Predict the 3D structure of the following.
Amino acid sequence: MASRGRSTVASLVVVGMAWVAPLAWQAGAASHVPAGPSVAVPAGGVLGSLTAVSAASSTDAWAVGATDPGPNGFGQHPLAFHWNGAGWVQVPVPVIDSRYWPGIAASETISAVSDLSPTDAWAAGNEEVEQSGMQHPIVWHWNGHVWAPVSTRGFTGLWTSVMAIVAQSPRDVWVGGFIPVGCELAFHWNGRRWANVNVDPTAPRPLPCDGDSIVALSAAGPRDLLAVGGSVWGTWALRWNGTTWGQTPVPTLPNARPFQVQLWGVDAVNSHDAWSVGGGSECGTFVGCTYPPPIVEHWDGHQWTPVATDGLGPSILHSVSMAFATDGWAVGTAYPTHALSAPLIVHWRRGRWSLVDVGASALHDTLAAVADVSPRLAWAVGYQSPIPRQPFRDQRTLILEWDGRSWHSSG
């Protein structure tokens, strides 16, 4: 999700300030396949898709996702690219043997990443067993040399799915997600173990679980975190005050109705300046899907306020990243017609959001995440699709770079 390890988000366990061996996944049930050597990323990308990006500096960034699946839609493996200041390098991530279903085909994907330094980065994703719907979270840590799995003892259930991660130190990492019955979940790492932290138990809603999911996290400080997502009842946001999670109402503009909408990305500049983006759709059996303009919300430390997106047509914004209060980016997908999609990039500058031309050659490409480092450097990641809206097949990873003047392919 966003940059400087602030938004989105351990494999080795911290004792004091020294990294020690990873905890066992579960007694006698887990192992991982050793990873191979790092290789340069080819100019045209590799088969697969990128879902998240995080940058600690102009010479240290990670883009993550998953490889292209097999013919049956499974068999994906985690994918990680590292920016070293000169180019992107594909760094192997160990594949975990199924901890609950040894020998059964499974896909392993990375949903989120949080980069703190060249020797400290965290990634989170999921293992899903073929044709079963059963899944379990996986967390990895980068120690400057290798990615290694971290124990997920303390996580809830076999069907837990994680979508967001934010790390502020080796002893302070949050992961957010959901379980399929619709309850949002948050887990906190204190350097030794995970704890399942109760999320918003007093929020007014018709049912205890109604499709809620944490899809993005951002931290303005150790005692100030924001989480966003959605449910069948619409958008919502939560705030961590250092002790408990509480709900912060999110108003939406009238043009967001009657579409089912949610917030997909969030990034905090500080405790009184944060942005969140999202969107929605209304799908029919015979007419396909229609989309309203995207959602943009601003947080002033007390409340969320909807911000008009003049000039943006039917589209969804998936990610937002703010290098400064005066400079930031949001990316997503535009839907000019029922049959076409195109990448969408908007720039926050001089107090307003403005559409940036990506070029006609980018038609059918999708941008999933952005990391803003400075006014002269940002990265956006996603995938190139040879067939309009054809999910998961023959996609190639896509990384774009902003150099202060224009967006171009990053190699």
Remarks:
- The chain has one domain: 36-409.
- The domain at 36-409 is CATH 2.130.10.10 (Methylamine Dehydrogenase; Chain H).
- The longest strand covers residues 106-117.
